[in-house]
Design a protein that fits this description.
Helices cover 39% and strands 14% of the residues. The longest helix has 19 residues. The chain has a 6-stranded mixed β-sheet, with helices on both faces. It has a 4-stranded parallel β-sheet with strand order 5-4-3-6, with helices on both faces. It has 2 domains: 210 residues, Rossmann fold, CATH 3.40.50; 103 residues, 3-Layer(aba) Sandwich (Rossmann fold), CATH 3.40.50.1100. The chain has 369 residues and is an alpha/beta fold. Helix 2 crosses helix 6. It is globular and about 70 Å long.
Length: 369
C-alpha cells in the first residue's frame, strides 16, 4: 500500500508496489483485455525477492534461529534474494555471506558489497548438487562457520508464504478497488496471473492467494527459460535440455521444494528464449517507461504467448475488462553493463537524431563562414 506515514526503517518500504497498465503494449499486440504489470522494482531493495528476505529473517528471529551479534546468514542466490537479505541484515545487524554464480551481474555483486555482504562467486556451469555450486559452497561455509545459518529460499516455507500474504493480496486489492468504467471496463477480479519461475515461491504463493481466497477460476501461467527444467509436462524441457541461458533469476536445473506441483497451482507453462526476453524488456522500457530487468521481459513473453493461444485469446485476450496481471520482478539497476541492455546505445539513428545532426552541422558551418 502507499506509504503515507514515516517508516521506522527501509524494511517498511518492502512491498506495496504498484499495479500499472501496459496499455501501449496491449494495443500493439491487439489485446482487448487489461494488461497489467505488478512492478516490483519499486520495493526498497529493488525486487520481488525483498518480500521473502524480510519474512525469512523475521520468522527466523521469531523462532530463535537468529541470534543478534552472533548469527551469520549465508544464502546461495542468483542475486536478488541476496540483496534483500543483505538489506534486512544491514538493518538488523547480522553478518551476511552470499554465494553467487559467475554469470550474475557485476551490479548485483557491487550492491551486495555496498550493503556489507561478503560475496563468493561460483562456477555457473556447476550442477546444483555439486560441491562447487553456489548451493554446495554455501553448505560448506555453513558447516565451518560458528552460528552460521542458511535460510534456504529453495525450501523455506516463508518464501511462498510471503507472496500468499503480501503480493497476492496487493494485486487483489488493486483490482477490486479500481472501479469499472465505460472507458476502462473491468471484470472486478484477477482473471489471469503470469510470472516467471525461479525458486517457484512467487508463482506458488500468489496462485494460492488468488485461487483460494479470490477467484478459484483464475488462470495461472508460469514462464520458464529454455535450458531450465521447471516446466510441466517435462517434455516441454527436452528440446533445449541443458542449454545455457543468460537471463538471470529464473529457471533451474533442479525442482525447488517451494515450487508446488499440486495440480491447479500452475495451469500452464510457457518456455521463453533469451532473445525474446531481452527484446520484451527493452520494449517495456521504451514503450511503458518501466526500467525493468530481463526476467520481466521473460514474464511478458510468456504472457503474450499464452494470450495468443486458442484458450488464452478466446477467454481473456479478446475480452474487454478481463484483468491479466504480469509480475515484473526487478529493475534495470542490476543489468546496466549487460550486453542486451547496452544494445540500446547501438540502435539505428532515429529521424529526430538525423534532424539534430543536420541542425548542429548547419550551425557549425554558419559560424565558420
Amino acid at each position: 500500500m502507499p506509504h503515507t506515514q514515516i517508516l521506522d526503517n527501509a524494511l517498511g518500504a518492502i512491498g506495496g508496489t504498484p499495479l500499472i497498465r501496459l496499455d501501449k503494449i496491449a494495443k500493439k499486440e491487439g489485446l482487448k483485455c487489461n494488461l497489467l504489470g505488478k512492478v516490483e522494482f519499486f520495493s526498497a531493495g529493488g525486487s520481488v525477492k525483498d518480500r521473502i528476505a524480510k519474512r525469512m529473517v523475521e520468522e527466523a528471529e521469531r523462532e530463535g534461529k537468529l541470534i543478534p551479534g552472533q548469527s551469520v546468514v549465508i544464502e546461495p542466490t542468483s542475486g536478488n534474494t541476496g540483496i534483500g537479505l543483505a538489506l534486512a541484515c544491514a538493518i538488523k545487524g547480522y553478518s551476511v555471506i552470499i554465494t553467487l554464480p559467475a554469470k550474475m551481474s557485476l551490479e548485483k555483486e557491487a550492491t551486495l558489497k555496498a550493503l556489507g555482504a561478503e560475496v563468493v562467486r561460483t562456477p555457473t556451469e556447476a550442477a546444483w548438487d555439486s560441491p562447487e555450486s553456489h548451493i554446495g559452497v554455501a553448505q560448506t561455509l555453513q558447516k565451518a562457520i560458528p552460528h552460521a545459518i542458511i535460510l534456504d529460499q529453495y525450501r523455506n516455507v516463508n518464501n511462498p508464504l510471503a507472496h500468499e500474504y503480501t503480493t497476492g493480496p496487493e494485486i487483489i486489492d488493486a483490482i477490486v478497488s479500481t472501479p469499472s468504467t465505460p472507458s476502462r471496463p473491468s471484470s472486478g477480479k484477477v482473471d489471469v496471473f503470469i510470472a516467471g519461475a525461479g525458486t517457484g515461491g512467487t508463482v506458488t504463493g500468489v496462485s494460492r492467494a488468488l485461487k483460494r481466497k479470490h477467484n478459484p477460476n483464475c488462470v495461472v501461467v508460469a514462464g520458464d527459460p529454455q535450458g531450465s527444467i521447471l516446466a510441466e509436462p517435462s517434455s516441454l524441457n527436452e528440446q533445449e535440455a541443458g542449454q545455457a541461458y543468460i537471463v538471470e533469476g529464473i529457471g533451474y536445473d533442479f525442482i525447488p521444494d517451494v515450487l508446488s506441483r499440486e495440480p491447479g497451482t500452475v495451469d500452464h507453462w510457457i518456455k521463453t528464449s533469451d532473445e525474446d526476453a531481452f527484446a520484451a524488456a527493452r520494449l517495456l522500457i521504451k514503450q511503458e517507461g518501466l526500467l525493468v530487468g530481463g526476467s520481466s521481459g521473460s514474464a511478458l513473453v510468456a504472457a503474450l504467448a499464452w494470450l495468443k493461444t486458442e484458450e488464452g485469446w478466446k477467454d481473456f485476450g479478446s475480452v474487454k475488462g478481463a484483468n491479466v496481471v504480469v509480475l515484473l520482478p526487478d529493475g534495470i539497476r542490476n543489468y546496466m553493463s549487460k550486453e542486451w541492455f547496452l544494445e540500446t546505445t547501438r540502435a539505428a539513428p532515429t529521424p529526430l537524431a538525423h534532424k539534430i545532426h543536420a541542425i548542429l552541422k548547419d550551425s557549425k558551418s554558419s559560424k565558420q563562414e
